[in-house]
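Working notes for the structural subgroup meeting. M.R. asked for a predicted model of this chain before we commit to crystallization trials. I am recording the input and output together here so anyone reviewing the notebook later can reproduce the run.

Input as submitted:
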Amino acid sequence: MKQLSILATALAASTTLACWAVAQQPPPSSSMGALMEGVSAESRACITCHETSTAPVVVQQWAVSRHAQSGVGCFECHQVDKGRKDGFEHFGQFISVVVTPKHCGICHDQETREFEASHHAQAGEILGSLDNILGDVVEGRPAAVNGCVKCHGSVIKVIKDGKLDPTTWPNEGIGRINPDGSKGSCSVCHSRHTFAASIARQPESCGYCHLGPDHPQSEIYAESKHGVTYRTLIGQMNLASRSWVLGKDYSAAPTCATCHMGATKDMPATHDVGTRLSWTLRPEVSIHLANWEAKRADMKKVCMNCHGANWINNFYVQYDSAVDLYNTKFADPAKAVMAKLKAAGKLGPSPFSEKIQWTYFELWHHQGRRARMGASMMGPDYVQWHGFYEVAKTFYSEFLPEAEALLPGVTADIKKSDANLWLQGLSKGDRDTIQQYYQKRYGE
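Returned structure, recorded in token form:
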């Protein structure tokens, strides 16, 4: 059965790739001629040059896009005022390589305003965070340039004559700060130069950033029932639909975009990915977001398209209980211990001076996030083995002993709490029950 499942997945993926490859084939010359007639003279000049010299595939990608069908060409997106510092003269026109949300907003005003209000647009604010100190200082600047800022974004710097600083460009970070003052990059989701909504609707597009040891949403989704169903029934997802309304244009499975951004029959689509989130799972201790009840109600409206009210409400009971467990049993006590160690002068001048600071960072930043995010997206393996198991192992076998070594007695209250009575040992009855189970099941 497992081999059949793998085969089905492979066939679905190959079908998708085949369809994508056909869509990307350059249009016949007659079609290109019609497209050329529909765009401005400035854009026709760009196309005539680029389709035979530099980056001809860019022209082919544009030619199959809705931009091309709507008469939006190269010049319409790349032209800038002469006062813009990253602009330069190019064959008689003043243009910039960087196309920003401000530019996209000329036509896509509502989407741009929603994006600007989102946490995505603020992603570049990591530049002053503990994460960035780790990447930029502890690891080294090239690590941050080729790692952190590729997802989060950075300030795009201009050196001279409109040329872009190679340490800041290329950069498709979702929260990059552009030369015109705007934040973000639409093309990180709507891959240029096709700018297809069908690309942004697929989970792989989100997985460009949302994966790995500290925020593995892509992997969690892939193991969830949602992800398995999507991959199996991808041919029924109608990803290229103009409206893409759940329950109207498709019903096979949800993707990231469905739940966090997508339209339903009674709710419009949004480019603010946080409008349906009730918890923030990023920090050391999870907290409810502002207006979280209303945001949760909106997410429930999406869920109601596929699930009954009782199922949805019970899911949130289970999810909330996992977050509360992490907060109360591990996060709050660990954070309190770190505060005591700092007050006692036991931590060095750097956020990573002492071993316990690394231990604590991985406890909440990696393991704690995985547990919480696994619960939020119904990925049981990430809740348990990649999540709470790692949290518990690190908390009890590393964090508490390291804290005691630095400041004896600092963990005494934690060890005496009801949540940690197990540290005093299992009762004989509990040990006998476990032994009997293994004898019955495995003959041991």
